Amino acid sequence: MVDHVLVPVDDSDRSTQALEFVCREYPKARITALHVLDPGDFYAATGIEGGAMANYEEIQDAHETRAEEILNHARELGAEHGVEIETDHIVGGISRSIVEYADDNDVDHIAIGSHGRTGASRILLGSVAEKVARRSPVPVTIVR
């Protein structure tokens, strides 16, 4: 029996599909939507602009605000399905953070979209879903 399902979310259609899948398949389980803020995104956005370093804290705040929007959307989607969604966000490497979160929070199952990040970053970093599936201490469903 699945008691606690973790669904990593970003702003991709695949993560939304994974969350919808969990709401349909595990409506009685505790469902946690997790958004991971990759610190590499903060550093990538900083640099010399007009002769001054971009403000790292402002960039992180913008990412935190975006994370809250994504998590609000997850809660709204759960409400549409009659399911309460718990939410959390953390800062760290994406696949490693998802696996560690599952291990540290008594998660029984992970459902993850097959493609979250897009473009060059996905190609360079490899598939997050694949890394999570290989390293996870619990079963993983990859939603396509």
Main attributes of the structure:
144 residues, alpha/beta, five-stranded parallel sheet, two-stranded antiparallel sheet, 49% helix
Task: Write structural notes for this entry.
The structure is a single chain. This protein has 144 residues and is of the alpha/beta class. The protein is 49% helix and 23% strand. The protein has helices at residues 13-25, 39-45, 56-80, 94-104, 119-125, 128-135; strands spanning 4-8, 30-37, 48-49, 52-53, 85-91, 109-113, 140-143. The strands form two sheets. The protein has a five-stranded parallel beta sheet with strand order 5-2-1-6-7, sandwiched between helices. Helix 2 packs across helix 3. The mean pLDDT is 87.
Question: In brief, what are we looking at here?
Answer:
With 144 residues, this protein is α/β, with parallel strands linked by helices. The chain has six helices and seven strands; from the N terminus they run βαβαββαβαβααβ. Strands 5-2-1-6-7 form a five-stranded parallel β-sheet, sandwiched between helices. Strands 3-4 form a two-stranded antiparallel sheet.
